[in-house]
Fold this sequence. Notes:
Structural class: mainly alpha
Number of helices: 5
Order of helices and strands: EEEHEEHHHEHE
Mean pLDDT: 76
Distance between the termini: 10 Å
Strand order of the largest sheet: 5-4-6
Oligomer: single chain
Strand content: 5-15%
Amino acid sequence: MAWHDGTVTAPLTPPHQPxxxxxxxxxxxxxxxxPASGSPDDPDTATELRQSGLVVVTVALAGIALGLLWLWLAxxxxxxxxxxxxxxxxxxGEEAIGADGTFVLLAAGFGVLxxxxxxxxxxxxxxxxxxxxxxxxxxxxxxAWRVGVWLGPSSDVVARAREVGKGVVFDAPLExxxxxxxxxxxxxxxxxxxxxxxxxxxxxxxxxxxxGWGSSYGGPGVEGAGGPPVPPAPGGxxxxx
Length: 241
C-alpha cells in the first residue's frame, strides 16, 4: 500500500505477479494445447496405418474379380489365316475399342463399390486410408489387366493360326491399348466418391482448444475477456496514485 495525502491506496497489480489482463502470458502449469489430428504424437496414427494397409490389400485383390469380368464381357476380335498370314475377319469391326471401353466401365464400377465400402467400414479414416484406397485401385487395375490377358486367348497368334488351320476363325489375344488411362479410372472414381461421401456424411472434427483452460484470456471463471475485478482496499475508496 502507498500513502498519498492521507489516503490509502492499493496497487492495481500485486508485485511479482503476472498481469491477469495480459493476453500474451503463458498458460498455467499443467495446461497444454490439444494435439492436432494426424500429428506424429497422435495415438491413432498407428491404427490408421494398419487400416491403410488392409485397404490396399483388399482393394488390390478385388482386381482379380475385375479381370475375370473383363475376360467374360469384353468383345472378341475374330482372326483368320490363309496359310501364309493372319487377317482380321472383319476389318471394320470395333471389338478392339470395345475391349478398352468394357475395362473402363468395369473399373469405374469397382471404384464406386470400393469407395462406398471403405467409407462405410472406416468412416473416420484419415489421409492414410485415402492414400491406401488410391494405391489399391491402381494395383487392382494392373492385376485385372494381367489376369485378363493371362487367362484370355493365346498371345502367340502365329502358333494359334497354325494350330487351328487355314480358313478357321479364332480369337485374337485380349489386349488393353490405353493402359495408362484405364488403370487410373478406378482410383480417380474411388477418390472422387470417397471425398463426396466424407463431405456429406463424414464426422466433423472439433477445433483445437486449450485443454484445462478457458477460451478467454483470463482463464477459468473469467467474466468476458478480462480478469477478475480488483477489490477495493479496506477503509475507503481506492484510486490510482
